Amino acid sequence: MTQTRNRLVLAVLAVFGFCEAALAQDKYPSRPITIVVPFAAGGPLDVSTRVMSVALTSTLGQPIVIENASGAGGSIGAGRVARSTPDGYTLLMYHIGTATTPALYRGKLSYDPIKDLTPVALVNDGPMAFVAKPNAPPTNLKEFLAYARSQGSKFNLGHAGIGAASHLCSVLFQKEIGTQVTTIPYRGTGPAMAALLSGEIDAICDVASNATGQIRAGALKAYAVTGTKRLPAIPDTPTVAEAGVPTLAMTNWNAMFAPKNTPAPIVERLVAALGVALKDPTVVQRFAELGTMPIDAAPTAAQVLKDHLAAETARWTPIIEQSGQFAE
Ligand code: ASP
After folding, report:
1. CA 141, CA 283: separation in Å to the nearest integer?
2. How far is the CA of 303 from the centre of ligand 1 (A)?
3. Are residues 107 and 179 in the same domain?
4. What is the band of 321 on the pLDDT scale with cuts at 50, 70, 90?
5. Is 197 part of a structural domain of the chain?
6. Is the same domain home to 108 and 152?
7. Residues 141 and 53 in one domain
8. Residues with Cβ within 6 A of ligand 1?
């Protein structure tokens, strides 16, 4: 009898807990949301996230707090989000590194990007740009490659840590010139850019949006962008194909993720809010100035991101394995 009563009480409590969870999802969001950016403040992922978050705040009706948790090409911050409570209040903005870090860190990642994150939506996409100081000797991309090859380990190429987009571009670059240069990791290309401007390093293959302002101001020289089209923000810079080296093509995408087991209604709410935020005229204009493209968050956005992540993982894994440049 007591056992039956206990079971009944448990069943009632379970239903009550279920209703409470459903109610919380219904009211989502009812308090501030934290978005973890796993690179340094002031860099390209941070800036894109901040631009998008202003519009997202008004669409969701709650403040958004951005937390920079940098290190290991983004995998430290991403791992933290993967282990957070799946209630929609801790989210992640990450990029191509979500697809490449498993191959680069070979079993040393603290989380599995495919199993431990819930895809929400792609947010924006843009090319990389090869940039150096205006007084650098090469005048075009082919000369730049020849110069780096001739300098070998004396040539210092900055990047944002193993797994960063700038690191992947440095892998493609070294494959192209057939020589290893010295690659120097920073906690983001925000700090790498400061190092380039102060003459500490020779060049970066940076996420273009981090460099367009400096290029337009004449503080940097750009040899090429890695997309298939020129960027309207820096129309004089050729694409890698126009500059004669199409094998250096790549783009970097940014996307929103949540911890695994995040309830579908929360993901749907975020997708709908992103769909509005990414069409906001201020976001569209600012992204165009930076040289990155907002991606339309259609209702199928979570599935689109899931498929994209699988395709990018399949594309980059063999390139990384052939390069032999793994994280220590
Ligand atoms: N996303 C990095 C940053 O925001 C740059 C990179 O991946 O290369 O600094």
Report:
1. 32
2. 24
3. no
4. very high
5. yes
6. no
7. no
8. 39-40, 43-46, 95, 160, 164-166, 188-190, 207
Boundary residue ending a domain (198, 228, 248): 248
- Band of pLDDT at residue 21, cut at 50, 70 and 90: low
Residue 277 belongs to some domain of the structure: yes
Let me know whether 132 and 121 are in one domain. no
Ligand 1 atom nearest the C-alpha of 73 is 7
Instruction: Cite the beta strand spans of the chain per DSSP E.
Output: 33-37, 64-68, 90-95, 117-132, 156-159, 182-185, 203-207, 221-225, 251-259, 293-294
Bridge partners of residue 37, in order along the sequence: 68
% of the chain residues with pLDDT over 90: 89
Q: Whose CA is nearest to atom 1 of ligand 1?
A: 45
Contact (Cβ atoms closer than 8 angstroms) between residue 52 and residue 277:
yes
In this predicted model, what pLDDT tens digit does every residue of 81-111 receive, in sequence order?
999 999 999 999 999 999 999 999 998 999 9
CA of 26 to the centre of ligand 1 (A): 35
* Model pLDDT, residue 145: 98
Long-range contacts of 12-21 (CB under 8 A, 24+ apart): 21/263
Residue 2 lies in a domain: no
pLDDT of residue 187: 97
Q: What is the pLDDT of residues 156-187, one digit of tens each?
A: 999 999 999 999 999 999 999 999 999 999 99
Name the packing angle between helices 264-277 and 301-323 (round to 10°).
Answer: 90
Residues 78 and 216 in one domain: no
83 CB neighbour count, 10 Å cutoff: 13
Task: Quote the domain boundaries for residue 177.
Answer: 127-248
pTM: 0.92
CATH of the domain at 185: 3.40.190.10
